[in-house]
Amino acid sequence: MTHISEREQELPNTLMLQLQELAAEHKDIISLSIGEPDFKTPKPILDAAKKFMLSGTHYSPAAGRTDLRKAIAQKLRKENKISADWENVIVTAGSQEGLMAALLTTVDPTEEVILASPGYLGYVPAIELADGVPVFVRLREQDGWQINPDEMKKKISKKTIAIMLNTPSNPTGTVIKKKILEEVADIAVQNDLYVFSDEAYEKIVYENAKHVSIGSLNGMKEHAVTFNTFSKTYAMCGFRLGYMHGPKEFVKAVSKVHHYLEICAPHTSQLAGLAALKLNKKYISEMVREYDRRRRLIVRRLNEIGLHTVNPEGTFYALADISDFSNSSVKFAEDLIRKARVACIPGTEFGPYGEGLARFSYANDYNKISTAMDRVGRAL
Ligand SMILES: Cc1ncc(COP(=O)(O)O)c(C=O)c1O
Questions:
Q1: 377 Cα: distance to centroid of ligand 1 (angstroms)
Q2: pLDDT single digits (tens) 140-189
Q3: What is the domain range of residue 173?
Q4: Number of structural domains found in the chain
Q5: pTM, rounded to two decimals
Q6: Ligand 1 in reach of 170 Cβ (< 6 A)
Q7: Which of 21, 69, 137, 205 has CB 3.0 to 4.6 Å from 209, enough for a Cys bridge?
Q8: Integer Cα distance of 299 and 276 in angstroms
């Protein structure tokens, strides 16, 4: 029996997974393709997880443990200035599950979701799995990769349901400016749209860049859904733990979908998440300091090689312009693996406006990044 749904067959085949497998098989390849912290989860979190695991673990309530939801709401109020209510928090299995549940809850077939390209590669398949239609706003390097609200306005139709935002942004490394977020908030209110704000990299910001949650802006209480995750800030990707906070009626509806998708987020991970929220902030600042050191190295080296790269203000990605070397991002990435034994992600993975670009992750050891840049320089 080999019947596979059309829905599945229409999903893009992500090159990213193949590249990761290749890099895992061939130890001489330096992978700058990965989207997860190379740091070990901080010890207090691991200790908490171990303790709870040994005491046996069961389902939690569908929306998550009440103590964790309360701790998340407190964090959102204090750090993100969102007037969060713990009953409007749902704990999810990573933010990817939260995004999927939100789309399944709000989007009917052929309805549209506006999103940026280049943008995170997980959004398009999630929109398509919900039978929605992605509508892209092109990001431009000359705008510092910031989204242009005027272009966004032109993409709104009667079928638009939501605007997907990601700040700090993967793969551009942009931290969206408050002024732009205010304009997007106005667009959402005027057109009665949701803003799905994915803030996975909120703590990984550099120099004077300041992360702002659109959910904290005036009038956004009934429109913004804030998605977050423990994966990046706390190097907890494998725990599969995230959360979302949104308007009361939305949360009531999405709780049902989340329950049927997941029953609940992994319970042991929820207890580890409670420990994470109590973690001494020095663990995070040390990781960010090291990302920053690598960022300076990789951006300088990429530019010296001739791969023009805008200084990223956040995340652990550098998005390079490869157009002087190749007219195909995929071919460029394949050649780089073959000739330099370095893996990057071709820009075409980030939507229709990614051609001519390649993403280099610096969630890797400083010396390995340096060696990778030597090899890329020689190969090019
Ligand atoms: C922008 C963005 N959002 C969401 C995710 C999904 O993260 P998780 O499901 O681990 O929370 C990722 C993972 O790379 C990401 O880059």
A1: 30
A2: 999 999 999 999 999 999 999 999 999 999 999 999 999 999 999 999 99
A3: 56-277
A4: 2
A5: 0.96
A6: yes
A7: 205
A8: 31
